[in-house]
Each structure stands twice: as structure tokens, then as C-alpha cells.
Automatic annotation (TrEMBL):
Endpoints of the signal sequence: none
Superkingdom: Bacteria
Keywords tagged on the record: Membrane, Transmembrane, Transmembrane helix
Protein name: Diguanylate cyclase (GGDEF)-like protein/PAS domain S-box-containing protein
Residue window of the full protein shown: 734 to 1021 of 1021
Keyword Metal-binding found: no
Amino acid sequence: AAKSSGKRTWRRFQPQQRIRVMERHELQARLDKAVSEEAFGLRYQPVVDIAGGEVVGFEALARWPELGPDPVPPGQFIPLAEETGHISTLGAWVLRRATADIARLQHRTRRLDPPYLSVNVSARQWRDTGFLDEVYTALDSTGLAADTLQLELTESVLMRRTKQIDAQIQALKDRGVSIAVDDFGTGFSSLRYLRDFPIDVLKIDKSFIDGIPEDPQQVALVEGIVRLADTLGLQVIAEGIEEQPQRELLADIGCRYGQGFLFARPLTVEQGEALLRQRNAERAPTPD
Ligand code: C2E
Ligand code: MG
Ligand code: MG
Ligand code: MG
């Protein structure tokens, strides 16, 4: 026992770990300040129809700081914001800003089919009792149609459902908002929640897409997910498409929608609008 506790003491004072702890504290202090100053930015990654390349929606992705040479990756600051509870403030800001941006974009491009907005919502936000009101306020104050809003959750939320979360999701669904499962396949996937839960969209995680078309097992898995989704009446989005052969295989197996650097990186709202105008055909004018 003495030996193992001695080992632990030694480990605790490893210089590398001390640096990590210091960096964390510093990052946390910067994040506190950034949250109070709303010093964040948003980029919008197009979701496209894989066969034709038309833009059907935009996923809002947080950036911090908004500008400058040293961005902190969301994979780093989002988990930190989740631990400290800042994600509630940050998430509310993302909702307000993204709904305002996309409502304006939809208005400026109103002769095109309106693209939808997809927003990432962390587990902690789903547990906030004020979350539903934040969504409604964002919709009401921007005029974004509820049926052009999609909210993304991860499998961890589905695995730790509560009556409150179920009720919130049902209320959102009743209002016309869609629900997508993000990073599908990386969590504790249970086929039962796909059946019991009012999900609209599965987003197949990039780690599965990386292995196609070379790896027959990955191909079989992606194909299986697409078939399953079809059977259950869900839409599928393949995440992280980087190469043309991936796109071709996905089109072949009937995966309709995708996101990835092959089509577009996360863009400013102006760049997103330009791409939409370039890729999407105008609707025939409707007589009124
Ligand atoms: P996610 O929601 O799965 O978003 C997709 C991530 O994959 C984004 O990273 C996007 O830039 C990246 N990506 C898209 N296509 C490709 C590709 O072809 N190749 C590669 N290598 N990457 C691609 P990003 O922006 O760094 O965000 C990382 C994660 O941070 C997101 O994963 C999401 O979980 C989280 N996140 C970002 N913004 C928010 C937010 O506003 N709220 C919450 N709760 N989470 C957020
Ligand atoms: Mg996402
Ligand atoms: Mg994802
Ligand atoms: Mg993710």
C-alpha cells in the first residue's frame, strides 16, 4: 500500500502534468472572460445532397476567439465549458446568433428553397430547465421557421434520458423542430432508442466514413446504418467526407446527405450564402 501511494505522489508531481493543470487554469480564466464578453464566433458548415451537391442546410460550429492567429479548437473549449457550466451561457448565445444569421440568410435567398440550421446541444444544456424557453425565444425573436431548425444531441443524452428531457424533446417536435443524433456509432448505440425515441436524423460519425471505400467492414457498417435508417424512416447524414471515392460509394449505397471538406469547410455566413446561390437552382416563381 505504501508503495502504491508513493507511486501516486510521484505521478502527481510530474512536471508535464503540472503544466497541463496550469494551462487548464489559464484556459478556464480566459474562457470565463470570453463568456461574459461573448467573444465567440460561428462558422457554418454546409450539409449537402451528396449526388448533386446542392446545399440543404448549415451546421453552426462555435469558434473561439472569433478572429486571430491562435484559435482554441472546440474539441478543447466545449468540454471545458461543459465542466464549468459555461456551456449554458455559450449555448444560449450560439442559439440566438445562429438563428438570427440563418433567418437573415433565408430571407436574402428567398427565391431558393430555405436551408435549415443545425445546432449542437450538449448534454448539460438538455438538462437545463430553461433550455426550451431559449429555443422558443430564439425562434420568436428571429422569425426562423421551427421546421427549419434541427438540434443535435449525442448518444450519451439518449442513454441518460429523464422525463424532463423526453418532455422537452416532445415539445420541440410538436413545434416542428427536428432532432439529430450526432457522431452516431461512437457511443453506446442501442437499437431500442432508435425505435422508441422521436429522432429524425442520424449523423454517421466521421470515423466510419474514414474507412470507406477501402475497408470492407466499414463499408458494411455504413451500409447497414443506411438500411436501418431507411427502415425506421430516418434521414442519414455522413460526416467528414473528404475524398471523391467516399462520395461515390455513399451515393451508391443510397446515403443521401453529407458534410465534409470535399464539399465545404465551415464557412462565414457570407461565404455560406455565396455557395448556396452558386449551387442551388432557383425555384420556379410561384404565382400570387
Ligand atoms: P461535430 O458536431 O461532430 O462537428 C463536426 C466537426 O467535424 C467540426 O469540427 C467540423 O469542422 C469537422 N469536420 C467537418 N467535415 C470534416 C472533414 O471532412 N474532415 C475533418 N477532418 N473534419 C471535418 P469542429 O468545428 O472542430 O467542432 C468539433 C466539435 O465541437 C463538434 O463536433 C461538436 O461536438 C462541438 N461543437 C462545436 N460547436 C459547438 C456548439 O456550438 N455547441 C456544442 N455543444 N458543441 C459544439
Ligand atoms: Mg454536430
Ligand atoms: Mg459529429
Ligand atoms: Mg462531436
